[in-house]
């Protein structure tokens, strides 16, 4: 297991169940905030239906994760490096062509990420909404899932379903919560408390609280400008909250799990290094 302890990169995947709660916005802004703090960061957009991360970053790269999964390009060629030094593997809009078995496709992605991993501190994975098997598989391959929760009952229920599937079907328990669109830090903490009470009563999850993000129209206005909020509105409450989340994530205890190793394909090295 030498390769495990030698690995510094942390693979963090955003999840929610429900759509429209802020996964992509938070992925993009967290990734930019981390990159600006000097954390070597890659953003991987695994939303094959609504590949929005590139749009929110204001870039339009020609190649996507689909080129990697289908074996046309290595990760190095398909990724786009932004002005902040963030490495983006853009999502693909449309369904993955059924040319290769999923196992083969995922292995190509894992091997490409493994090559990058030696020069990375964070891989941020944006996920589609919903609880599709492939989505759950990617989540369960990360070192830590960041579950985005809002005060809406539907968000609460869908987040619960996500944690349930992860823990019961995949034996995956490493979940940290971000309370989004909250009125105050106290209500964010309260929302987490209620979720924690219910989920930990019924599910074997290691639930932790990463922090909250206030409801702030600048998040939406930034998308209209095709810029991350942290770039477009540096003085906004949202940007302050995103910077706090980035710092909390950098300080969060995220030991590389065997899950992240699967994502990065590192399990092949076990026993060799
Ligand atoms: N903290 C926030 N305050 C206000 N609006 C937000 C906040 N977070 C996200 N949004 C808005 O919510 C909408 C959905 O966000 P998005 O990131 O696309 O969600 P998801 O990826 O979960 O579907 C966007 O219009 C975004 O601007
Ligand atoms: Mg999204």
TrEMBL record:
Coiled-coil regions listed: none
Keywords, in A-Z order: ATP-binding, Nucleotide-binding
GO BP annotations, alphabetical order: negative regulation of cell division
Superkingdom classification of source: Bacteria
GO cellular component: cytoplasmic side of plasma membrane; cytosol
GO molecular function (one): ATP hydrolysis activity
Bilayer-spanning residue ranges: none
Signal sequence annotation: none
Protein name (record): MinD/ParA family protein
Species this chain originates from: Alterirhizorhabdus solaris
């Amino acid at each position: 297991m030498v390769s495990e302890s030698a690995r510094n990169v942390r693979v963090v995947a955003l999840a929610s169940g429900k759509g429209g709660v802020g996964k992509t916005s938070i992925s993009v802004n967290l990734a930019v905030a981390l990159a600006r703090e000097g954390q070597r960061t890659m953003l991987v957009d695994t939303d094959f239906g609504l590949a929005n991360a590139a749009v929110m970053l204001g870039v339009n790269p020609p190649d996507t994760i689909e080129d990697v999964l289908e074996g046309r390009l290595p990760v190095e060629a398909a990724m786009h490096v932004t002005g902040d030094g963030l490495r983006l593997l853009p999502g693909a809009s449309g369904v993955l062509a059924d040319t290769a078995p999923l196992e083969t496709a995922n292995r190509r992605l894992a091997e490409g990420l493994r090559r990058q991993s030696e020069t990375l501190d964070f891989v941020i994975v944006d996920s589609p909404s919903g609880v599709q098997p492939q989505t759950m598989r990617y989540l369960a391959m990360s070192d830590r899932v960041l579950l985005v929760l809002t005060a809406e009952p539907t968000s609460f229920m869908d987040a619960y379903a996500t944690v349930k599937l992860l823990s019961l079907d995949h034996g995956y328990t490493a979940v940290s919560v971000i309370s989004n669109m909250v009125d105050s830090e106290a209500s964010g903490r309260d929302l987490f408390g209620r979720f924690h009470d219910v989920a930990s009563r019924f599910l074997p999850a290691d639930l932790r609280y990463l922090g909250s993000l206030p409801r702030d129209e600048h998040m939406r206005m930034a998308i209209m400008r095709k810029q991350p909020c942290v770039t477009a509105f540096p003085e906004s409450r949202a940007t302050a909250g995103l910077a706090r989340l980035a710092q909390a994530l950098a300080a969060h205890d995220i030991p590389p799990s065997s899950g992240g190793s699967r994502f990065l394909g590192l399990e092949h090295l076990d026993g060799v290094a």
